[in-house]
From TrEMBL, chain A:
UniProt keyword Cell membrane present: yes
Keywords noted in UniProt: Cell membrane, Membrane, Transmembrane, Transmembrane helix, Transport
Locations listed in the record: Cell membrane
Taxonomic lineage from the root: Bacteria, Pseudomonadati, Pseudomonadota, Alphaproteobacteria, Acetobacterales
One example of a Gene Ontology biological process annotation: cellular response to sulfur starvation
Membrane topology note: Multi-pass membrane protein
GO cellular component: plasma membrane
Positions of transmembrane segments: 12-30, 70-92, 104-123, 129-148, 155-174, 194-213, 225-246
One Pfam family, short name: BPD_transp_1
Family: Belongs to the binding-protein-dependent transport system permease family.
Protein name, UniProt field: ABC transporter permease subunit
Domain ABC transmembrane type-1: start-end pairs: 63-247
InterPro entries named among the record's database cross-references: MetI-like (IPR000515), MetI-like_sf (IPR035906)
TrEMBL record, chain B:
InterPro entries in alphabetical order: AAA+_ATPase, ABC_transporter-like_ATP-bd, ABC_transporter-like_CS, ABC_transporter_ATP-bind, P-loop_NTPase
Record bears the keyword Coiled coil: no
Record keywords: ATP-binding, Nucleotide-binding, Transport
SUPFAM superfamilies in UniProt: P-loop containing nucleoside triphosphate hydrolases
Organism annotation: Acetobacter estunensis
Upper lineage: Bacteria, Pseudomonadati, Pseudomonadota, Alphaproteobacteria, Acetobacterales
Protein name stated in the entry: ATP-binding cassette domain-containing protein
Keyword Disulfide bond attributed: no
ABC transporter domain boundaries: 4-233
PROSITE patterns noted in UniProt: ABC_TRANSPORTER_1, ABC_TRANSPORTER_2
MF terms (GO), sorted A to Z: ATP binding; ATP hydrolysis activity
Pfam families: ABC_tran
Family: Belongs to the ABC transporter superfamily.
Length: 255, 259
């Protein structure tokens, strides 16, 4: 088979065509009543639903509410996850001592912490932040840990040979820059995982996009549910795009 | 007094049960270009790291009689076999790596790095990334990174071993040119007999298990013609020393033979 190589422009074009096709098929399926009415809103119904959410101020408020614990949870989870991953990856003693703890806590999904989040923080921003931070933490922890473990050991010798042999100097001059592709990949995955956890974190009533979705679904307002699904996808795409710009700038040495 | 004195030095990785090398005695004078020649895996590179202080010897001592440190210099610098540049640093930043932490301003570091890059013929490449360079250019950067700290002792660990023959030859010539300009003390590890004869004032043969100094020969004046008969005799002699055909202590054992 001929190896087809596509430029950025062609990819964007094809991606848009694919999306339009999805909406067209979706619209047709609802219009032709191939699914029972009420189960799935038609794409054409989304616009009015969206407009009414905006005019009521719910849309803007939900985004702001979700952003407030998303950003904070992401920040806390990313910093702690990368910090812990870096330390465990570069200090064998800490690595060995925490191995058991990591194996115990790692399999517990963020959602399972919700009861404790309510108990410890209450039904508020802090509780939601906690749930988001936990799921972001593990992604970053493992990405950082793996990235540190795969740093070319020989570069540590270069550092030592040129007067940068102390632990701190090696961390700054070798570990961090050498691991940066892995660290940034972890941050990026965490960025997406964070949005997914927003819904989970808000399921129990903390205001935001997820809570608004739950309200709408209990009223069978499927069009509103889809509006927020698309909203979340858009927010994810935006944060991922912006992060991609920063990442490409930081990793331009990779070419 | 010699710049480097290696005295009855040995290295063991298992607490003294077996030795990589043992009873190594070697002095290197200021401005001398010494090749340490020996088969692969004999511990030449390890000896280099012991001299540099990266590895502590199990027995004996290594003394370095380095001059008082001036700003922006280090007593030793190492050129690795595989260049080992940091891919996230530009060529110029790689060269300046050893200057960091020596109290120089950023502009001084930059100026010194540019100067070192000019010395190795890469003045125009300072802003590029290591991945954009050829193998030979990368190794030139490795040499510049070592020279930039103006070391008393320049240690080179088979620096041209991974290069193709043509690149190797041109880098050898360049190194000699730089050495004639700077008159650095060089300790150059190689397993290539011709390379040792071409470059060094003195060739120290490290062989055996545990390895020790099996021969210490002075090479005549430059420029060297590898095909001359006296060079061929020297090469044959080095070959037999590496192969361990000379019994240390016997008549055939030569120290400091002029050819």
């Amino acid at each position: 088979m001929k190896d087809l190589r596509l430029g950025g422009r062609e990819r964007l074009l094809l991606g848009t065509v694919g999306l339009m096709l999805l909406f067209a098929v979706w619209q047709a399926v609802v219009r032709l009543q191939l699914v029972p009415p009420g189960l799935l809103p038609a794409p054409s119904e989304l616009w009015p639903a969206w407009m009414s959410e905006i005019s009521g101020g719910f849309w803007q408020q939900s985004i702001l509410d979700s952003l407030s614990h998303y950003v904070l949870g992401l920040l806390i989870g990313s910093i702690l996850g990368n910090g812990a991953g870096l330390i465990c990856g570069s200090v064998p003693l800490v690595d060995a001592a925490t191995g058991g703890i990591v194996r115990l806590l790692r399999p517990i999904p963020g959602l399972a912490w919700v009861p404790f989040a309510i108990l410890w923080f209450g039904l508020n921003n802090a509780g939601a932040t906690f749930v988001i931070a936990i799921s972001v933490f593990w992604i970053n922890f493992y990405a950082a840990y793996g990235a540190v473990k795969s740093v070319d050991r020989e570069l540590y010798e270069v550092a030592a040979a040129f007067g940068h042999g102390s632990f701190l100097a090696r961390l700054l001059h070798v570990t961090l820059p050498a691991a940066s592709p892995g660290l940034l990949a972890g941050l990026r995955t965490g960025l997406g995982q964070g949005w997914m956890s927003v819904v989970a974190a808000e399921l129990f009533g903390v205001p935001g996009i997820g809570a608004r979705m739950m309200q709408a679904s209990s009223l069978l307002a499927t069009d509103v549910v889809v509006v927020y699904m698309v909203t979340m996808a858009g927010l994810y795409a935006l944060t991922d795009f912006l992060f991609g710009l920063v990442r490409d700038r930081l990793l331009r040495w990779q070419g | 007094m010699s710049l480097v004195r290696i005295e009855d030095t040995g290295l063991s990785h298992d607490g003294g049960k077996s030795f990589v090398f043992r009873h190594v005695d070697l002095s290197i004078g200021r401005g001398e270009f010494v090749a340490v020649l020996g088969p692969s895996g004999v511990g030449k590179s390890t000896l280099l790291r012991v001299v540099m202080g990266l590895i502590a010897p199990t027995e004996g001592v290594v003394k370095l009689d380095t001059s008082p440190r001036q700003a922006g210099t280090r007593s030793t610098a190492l050129v690795f076999q595989d260049a080992r540049l940091m891919p996230w640093r530009s060529v110029r930043q790689n060269v300046a790596f050893g200057l960091e932490g020596l109290g120089l301003s950023a502009s001084e570091r930059r100026e010194r790095a540019e100067q070192a890059l000019r010395l190795v013929g890469l003045a125009a490449e300072g802003g590029r990334w290591p991945r954009q360079l050829s193998g030979g250019q990368r190794q030139r950067v490795g040499v510049a990174r070592a020279l930039v700290v103006n070391p008393d002792l320049l240690l080179m660990d088979e620096p041209f071993g991974a290069l193709d023959a043509i690149t190797r030859t041109s880098l050898q010539e360049e190194l000699l040119g730089i050495w004639e300009k700077t008159r650095k003390t060089v300790m150059f590890v190689t397993h290539d007999i011709d390379e040792a004869i071409l470059l060094a004032d003195r060739i120290v043969v490290l062989a055996g298990s545990p390895a020790c100094v099996r021969g210490d020969l002075t090479v005549g004046p430059r420029p060297r013609d590898l095909s001359s008969s006296s060079r061929r005799v020297l090469a044959a002699r080095l070959r037999s020393l590496i192969a361990g055909e000379d019994d240390p202590g016997s008549e055939a054992w030569l120290r400091s033979v002029d050819i």
